[in-house]
Design brief:
Blueprint: H1 2-8, H2 12-19, H3 27-40, H4 48-52, E1 56-61, H5 67-83, E2 86-91, E3 94-95, E4 101-102, H6 104-112, E5 116-120, H7 126-134, E6 139-142, E7 154-157, H8 159-172, E8 178-182, H9 188-203, E9 213-215, H10 220-231, E10 239-242, H11 245-257, E11 267-272, H12 275-279, E12 285-288, H13 291-306, E13 315-318, E14 321-323
Parallel strand pairs: 1-2, 1-5, 5-6, 6-7, 7-13, 8-9, 8-10, 10-11, 11-12
Antiparallel strand pairs: 3-4, 12-14
Helix pairs in contact: 1-2, 1-3, 2-3, 5-13, 8-9, 10-11
Length: about 325
């Protein structure tokens, strides 16, 4: 502790407060001590009560302001209850008063002495992976944003197959001019869904049109704008595969403003099967990914890792399926 204090330029009691999660430390001082701990590779010795009662895990989330994250939280809570565990939810990124990002969950994790961590749509840095590994804290990624490093355990959905299923459904109705409104280019799930869509078109002998694939950021407003771009093409699509139900709402709005009806003029298929899909008018045909089941499977894997087991594989994929509703129909004239 004296070495840490000297490295951070603070007193030993101050360094000890940061290590033990005390709140009566200035943010700038906490930052210096935390950085010193990471540079020195400090590993806090677990308190005896933590060793005797490892019943707490952390769920670190990107946000909690959507029905998507609500489904994940429900799955984690139900599986944790069955396992006799308590769950603490932490935001992946907090900000200090000056607007700079802080490592909120790392400080809190150290203070609580949690037995394991689930990360939901939180993109970890190399330093954060190292921080977890140095402290031998088991962790599992739920639907990782990007390809995780080798050996990292994750659970997701069969996104590629979901993209195939969506495109095959539209092809089966007779559509050939099928567009795709996708999410972030670099996000794993978005890339896999687009790849599946393209694969299905290729298998059906449909020429790939690069202008028919428009990327957004998984929000309604961007999908609205991308749909407008598609409708302005010399030969607009007769069907759209949208890589999230939230974005599909933006597609609906753009079509309605152009006087186009779903599905009489344009068919739409979403992805996720969130409650919004059932509430939309018309109800949205979508690819269901089992969000709560993914979360529960991640929790069960984490429990095994906390017990010292190592999963046979690092990537678990749960199957997707098409849920047909009222937003798809054969193209006009068929």
């Amino acid at each position: 502790m004296a070495v840490v204090a000297r490295e951070a330029g603070v007193s030993v009691p101050t360094a000890s407060k940061v290590v033990n999660g005390r709140q009566d430390v200035a943010p700038e001082t906490r930052r210096r001590v935390t950085e010193a701990l990471e540079r020195l590779g400090y590993v806090r010795r677990p308190r005896i009560e933590e060793v005797q009662a490892p019943g707490l895990i952390d769920l670190v989330v990107d946000s909690l302001d959507s029905s998507w994250s609500g489904a994940v939280l429900r799955g984690v809570e139900e599986a944790a209850h069955d396992a006799g565990l308590e769950v603490v939810v932490s935001p992946g990124l907090t900000r200090a008063r000056d607007g700079r990002p802080e490592r909120g969950w790392t400080d809190k994790l150290t203070a609580r002495g949690s037995s394991g961590v689930l990360f939901n749509l939180t993109e970890l840095t190399a330093a954060q992976y190292a921080w977890l590994d140095q402290r031998r804290i088991p962790y599992v990624l739920i639907d990782p944003v990007v390809e995780p490093p080798p050996g990292v355990v994750s659970v997701g959905a069969a996104n590629w197959q979901g993209g195939v299923t969506a495109a095959e459904h539209l092809l089966g109705l007779g559509h050939e001019r099928i567009a795709c409104v996708a999410g972030y280019r670099r996000r794993m799930c978005s890339g896999a869904r687009v790849a599946g869509y393209r694969s299905a078109l290729a298998a059906a002998g449909i020429r790939h049109r690069p202008e028919y694939v428009r990327h957004g950021n998984f929000d309604e407003a961007t999908a609205y704008r991308r749909t407008g771009e598609l409708l302005d093409l010399p030969e607009p699509p007769t069907a759209v595969f949208v890589c999230s139900d939230t974005m599909a709402l933006g597609v609906y709005r753009a079509l309605a403003e152009r006087g186009l009806r779903v599905p009489a003029d344009v068919s739409v298929v979403g992805f996720d099967d969130l409650p919004e899909a059932r509430w939309a008018t018309p109800a949205l045909t979508t690819v269901r990914q089992p969000l709560a089941e993914m979360a529960a499977a991640s929790l069960r894997l984490l429990v095994r890792m906390m017990a010292g087991e190592r999963p046979e594989g690092t990537r678990t994929e749960l199957s997707t399926r098409l849920v047909e509703r009222a937003s798809t129909a054969p193209p006009r004239g068929r």
